[in-house]
Amino acid sequence: MKREFIVLLWLMAVLPCFSVGNMTIRPGQIWKDNRGIHINAHGGGVINHNGTYYWYGEHKADTTSSAMVGVTCYSSKNLVDWVYEGVALPVVDEEGHDIERGCILERPKVIYNKVTGRFVMWFHLELKGRGYAEARYGVAVSDTPVGPFKFLRSGRVNPGLWPSDMSQASRAAADTLDAGNYKEWWTPAWREAIVNGLFLKRDMHAHDGHPAGQMARDMTLYVDSDDCAYHIYSSEDNLTLHVAELTADYTAHTGRYVRVAPGGMNEAPAIFRKDGKYWMITSGCTGWEPNEARMFSADNILGPWTQHPNPCVGPGAGKTFGGQSTYVLPVGDGFVFMADIWRPGHPSDARYVWLPIEFEHGLPVVRWRDEWTPVEYGFK
C-alpha cells in the first residue's frame, strides 16, 4: 500500500503537463499564465522562433483601453501553457513622445528577419489625447524575441504614392475628385467616389494638420515564402484595406502597395497561405461590437482579391463567436485562427478565441468548439 502511494505521488509530480485539462484550449474562457494570471496580450500575434512560441499583445488596464503599460510577451512550447516574459515594448513617461503613456497602441505583430537577425514589431498607434485621428503605424526592433524592443518611429504610409494596382487612367480620374463635392457621407455618389480614390487622394499629401501618407489602423504582418514581408492595414478611414510591401530589413515601406475591397469597410485583417493561395479573414467595422467575419482569397498577395462567405460555423458564427479576428498562426501544416472578445467596460478581461482552421471543399472553415487540444490536430 505504501509503495502504491509513493508511485501515485511520483505520477502526480511528473505528469501534470500531460493532463488532458492542462493541454486543452477553451475559447472565450479565462486563460491563465504560469503565475495564475489571465494572459494580458490582446489584439496580438504569435511567432515560432527556434521551437518556442512567442505571443505579443496589448496590455489592457482594468478601466481604460489606452496603453498604460505597453506590449507584453509570453512564451510557450505547446500553445497551451504560457510563461510571462514581461513587457517587450514599454510605453514611456516623456511628454509628447509618440508612445507616451496613455497613447493608443493596438494590434502589435512581430516578425523575424533572417538577414539582420532582428525581431521587428509593427503596431497601430494613436497619439495621446488625439483619439483615433492620427491613424499611424509604429515600428520597433529588438535583438531578442522577448525584447526590450527599441521604438524607431511612427508615421503614415507611402506619402505621395499611388497604389501599384491603379492604372494611369484610374489615377488621373482619382486626381480630379474634390472632397468639397462630397460633404455628405454614405450617399451613392460618395460611395462611388471612395471606391475611385476620394480618401486615397486626400491622404496623399498633408492636410488638416495631418502628415502626408495613408492612414494605418487595424493591421497585421505577413512574411512570404521568399522572405518578402508585407504590412496589411485598414486605411482610408477604415473603408479600404491596403497591402504594402516592406523593405528588406522589414522596418520601412518600399512604396509598393495595393488596395483590397475599396469601400468595403474591412478591418482586423488576418492572413495566411495554403497550397499557393493566400487567404485573409477580416471583420466589418462596428467598433467594439462583434460582427460577421469576412474572407478573401488571392493567388498573389498583391491581388486581385476575391471575397468568399463567412468562414465561421457553429453557434455564434454570425458574430464571429463574439470576437474579432486578430491573427492566423501557422502550426506545422495547419493553422490556428485567433480572435479577441473585447470588453471595453473592463478591457483587461477581454477573452481569446483560438480555433483550428479546417478546409472543406477547398475553403477554410473555422468551427466553434467549447474546447480542443492542439495535439488532436497534429499541432506541436
From TrEMBL:
A Pfam family assignment: Glyco_hydro_43
Family matches, as Gene3D superfamilies: Glycosyl hydrolase domain, family 43
TM region positions: none
Coiled coil: none
CDD domains per record: GH43_CtGH43-like
The keyword Chloroplast is assigned to this record: no
The keyword Hydrolase appears for this protein: yes
Keywords: Glycosidase, Hydrolase
Similarity comment: family membership: Belongs to the glycosyl hydrolase 43 family.
Protein name, entry field: Family 43 glycosylhydrolase
Organism encoding this protein: Xylanibacter muris
